[in-house]
């Protein structure tokens, strides 16, 4: 359902975040990380630095070898 909503309106960051969470819970970590990175890019464009930082920490927890998100 979430993917269908995103197909209709890809700008729905709330839906992207929920989808990323569901992917994470399903063990699809690379897909979840990709979705979190997409949301982070939107937040960065909007100047929402605190949210970008939070997403980077989430990604770093999911993939500690992802050094760019540890900084």
Quick structural overview:
The chain has 71 residues and is mostly helical.
- Termini, distance in Å? 34 Å
Helical run tally: 4
Biggest sheet record: none
Sheet-strand content, in percent, reads under 5%
Give the SSE map.
Blueprint lengths: L1 H7 L4 H13 L3 H17 L3 H14 L9
Top keywords for this entry?
71 residues, mainly alpha, 4 helices, flat
Task: Walk me through what this model shows.
This protein has about 70 residues and is mostly helical. About 70% of the residues lie in helices and about 0% in strands. The chain has four helices and no strands. α1 (about 1-10) packs antiparallel against α2, α2 packs antiparallel against α3 and α3 (about 30-45) packs antiparallel against α4 (about 50-60). The chain is flat and about 30 Å long. The mean pLDDT is about 85.
């Amino acid at each position: 359902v979430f993917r269908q909503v995103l197909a209709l309106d890809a700008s729905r960051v709330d839906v992207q975040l929920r989808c990323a969470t569901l992917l994470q819970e399903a063990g699809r970590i690379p897909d979840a990380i990709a979705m979190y990175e997409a949301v982070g890019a939107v937040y960065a464009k909007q100047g929402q630095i605190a949210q970008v930082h939070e997403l980077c920490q989430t990604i770093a927890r999911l993939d500690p070898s992802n050094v760019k998100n540890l900084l």
